[in-house]
Model the fold of this input.
Amino acid sequence: MSNKQSNNLVDKFRTTSRQYSDASIFMHEAIARKAGLSGADHKYLGLILQHKELTAGDISKLTGLTTGAVTGLIDRLEKKKLLKRQFTKDDRRKVIIIPNPENSMKLLQPIFSELQQKTTDLIASFTEKEIQIIERYFTEATTIMNETTDNLNNK
Done:
């Protein structure tokens, strides 16, 4: 493959990747609005739901948000009963954030069910080798984005 062909492939891939990224942001914003959340709160809730419990400091470290912004996030999600604050027995100043997966799924599952089915059908149309290649791309691209995020947050 010539250098020009290689550059064209990379350009086409970058365009497609950017379109995917944009469509993902717009879709998640629409899902969030439908659920009565902001786009950011919706995505942060998804992150919080991956844990059994966290502290506000843990959320701040995971997201790069200031502790004040995390407090606002927790307030908004707690008001919707999507998580709760629980004081520790040893130190009542320390608060543990407990996600409420049941309420979260009750809110989001009706919105996601069609998307999940369509995505499952799409994945089933690929060979195992193709799925491994796509998975490798997403895994390595996620690492690059996480490194970039860390560098930007720490400068």
Remarks:
- DSSP finds six helices and three strands in the chain.
- The helical segments are 3-35, 39-48, 56-63, 67-79, 101-124, 128-153.
- The mean pLDDT is 92.
- Residues 145 and 151 are 10 Å apart (CA to CA).
